[in-house]
């Protein structure tokens, strides 16, 4: 059966969300919210974002990092990370600078995004030198970048056949402990395609953790405004039905084959961060709109889904 999905105008708007995320990250990094020596290569000079946006991104990056470290603590570096809808995420390079570099790191996004990321990597020595193996070998084949332990692969995540082929080309191993990252990506996919992808990943990797970060509580007035704003930008949330009740996300992931699923809205995450961390970032810039930050935070959530005993106890307060 032919499973080619037509390219739509909406994909361009979805692809543009990557530019947005990268610019927001650079704005927060420039102000000292967290350290990322690599984001500058992916976003040229950006205008300063509003304090609530910077703080929201801080909580997002911090929450992802907390769970990534819990995953790595349990399985060490003999593991793989698969970054779904990776955009210009710099996690690979940031981990490489710590002792926590992983065995294999695979990044997937639309070919137009991975082609640009590949181009940026090739042009910047600081990025390139971190993906070269001892022989300095980096292979670019059919637009995809392969090196020892890092693979950047173009595909539409809605086409399961393509995802399978790309994961195989990237050397994904079924038996390795696997961290799956889906940061603001599944929500842009048609629900059936996203569900098929989740089922495939859960069935393929018996020892895995999925970190899913996306909108939640969209059923209220604030949520309606968020949806309207996105729709005006040509970027409707195809998967919004899973972002209304927090329970809907949990049920969907259990239905896909994950064994434990827990979800926290970002306001809860923010309040659970170590007091020192919160005090440090609160001192970085004045925030007049406290209520707005709280509203924003309560409309995003991090959801952690696991398979395998090793990961069953991952927790926000671990
Ligand atoms: C909001 S950006 C997030 C990027 C990155 N995960 C981050 O958090 O910085 C969403 C990304 O998902 C990608 N994406 C959305 N739908 C996709 C699909 N069907 N196949 C491949 N990539 C997709 C977009 O191209 C974009 O890079």
UniProtKB/TrEMBL annotation:
GO biological process assignments: methylation; regulation of signal transduction
Reaction(s) catalysed (UniProt annotation): [phosphatase 2A protein]-C-terminal L-leucine + S-adenosyl-L-methionine = [phosphatase 2A protein]-C-terminal L-leucine methyl ester + S-adenosyl-L-homocysteine
GO (cellular component) term, any one: cytosol
Primary enzyme class: transferase
GO-annotated molecular function: protein C-terminal leucine carboxyl O-methyltransferase activity
Keyword Disulfide bond: no
Annotated S-adenosyl-L-methionine binding sites: 60, 85, 156-157, 183
A Pfam family it matches: LCM
Family, per entry: Belongs to the methyltransferase superfamily. LCMT family.
Protein name (Swiss-Prot/TrEMBL): Leucine carboxyl methyltransferase 1
Source species of the chain: Parnassius mnemosyne (clouded apollo)
Lineage, broadest ranks: Eukaryota, Metazoa, Ecdysozoa, Arthropoda, Hexapoda
